[in-house]
Structures are given as C-alpha cells and as structure tokens.
Amino acid sequence: MTDFDDLLAANRTYAEQFAIGGFDGIAHAGVAIVTCMDSRIDPLNMLGLSAGDAKIFRNPGGRVTDAALEALVLGVHLLNVNRILVVPHTRCAMASNSEAELHERVGQSAGQDASWQRFNVVEDQVAALEEDVHRVRAHPLIPASVRVGGFVYDVDTGLLDQKY
Ligand SMILES: [Zn+2]
Questions:
Q1: Could you tell me the distance, in angstroms and rounded to a whole number, from the CA of residue 103 to the centre of ligand 1?
Q2: Can you give the pLDDT at residue 142?
C-alpha cells in the first residue's frame, strides 16, 4: 500500500483546507470545456474559473466524441451549462503523430504489437475543430441558445485563439 502514499498524504493536507463540502455539482459559471488530457493545460485557471464553475471533459486531442456529447447534453440540461468551449492545443501529440507512428511508439514501449489499439489522431487540427464545433451545434438536444466556440490553446503562451 505504498504506491499512492505521497498522493494520499497530499490529499489529507488538501482536506484540511477543504471549504466546498456540501456543494452542488452544477456549473456555476455556466461553462463546459472539452479539452485534451495534456498536462500542460489547466482548464479552470486559464479561464479565470475555480472549482464549482465548470464541467470539464478531457480526452486525447480534446475531441468531441460521443462520450463528450453525452457529457455536454447532461451539462446543458441538468447542470446549468450555457456556454461550451472546445479547446484542442498547439503541439498536441494527437495532431503531430500519424496513427501508424503512435502504434510504433506505443508498441515499442509495450514491447508488443499495439496496432489493434485505436488512436483518434487528427490530421488537420483546425478542420477537425470546425467539425467538432459543428457536431455540438448540430446536436438535436443542444439548443441554439447555448453558445459554442472553438479555440486553439497555445501551450507556450497560455493564450486561447478563437477559430469558430
Ligand atoms: Zn493534446
């Protein structure tokens, strides 16, 4: 039971200052964010938000997958979301490797064939973003009153660039 001891110790320190117990789970700022799992992205801080303000859905590449749409529909109808940001980022591994390259790299790390594992790579990041924003706007359960924007986050400057 030592694999997570450092993190559990940090968690006990966190809990000592914990002030948001009994809080509801709605998005108090009305914001939902779909972004990449990349550790350089700090979704709340980059928008001046804090815990309780936003629903956040992350995956490799920050893509609007079926699971992301599931989260957004719940967010809009049950959790107070009225603005949605789709946020891929510069220097994303999912946009700078081909699926064959990822198979090769993961296969080498794993010491076995990885070609059966699907990786949702992006060939043209801005075109994929347009498609993803359209998927959200066109969803029959997401009303037109919900504002949807597509942005690219620059991991070197911290700035968001709105594309759609
Ligand atoms: Zn990424």
A1: 17
A2: 98
Residue 122 has a CB neighbour count (10 Å cut-off) of 21
CA–CA separation, 48 and 8 (whole Å): 27
Centroid of ligand 1 to alpha carbon of 101 (angstroms): 15
Structure tokens at 130: 């347009």
Dig out the tokens for 138 from the structure: 């066109």
CA of 112 to the centre of ligand 1 (A): 24
Q: How far apart are CA 71 and CA 56, in angstroms?
A: 9
3-state secondary structure 30-51: CEEEEEECCCCCCCCHHHCCCC
Counting as low any pLDDT under 70, the low residues of the chain are none
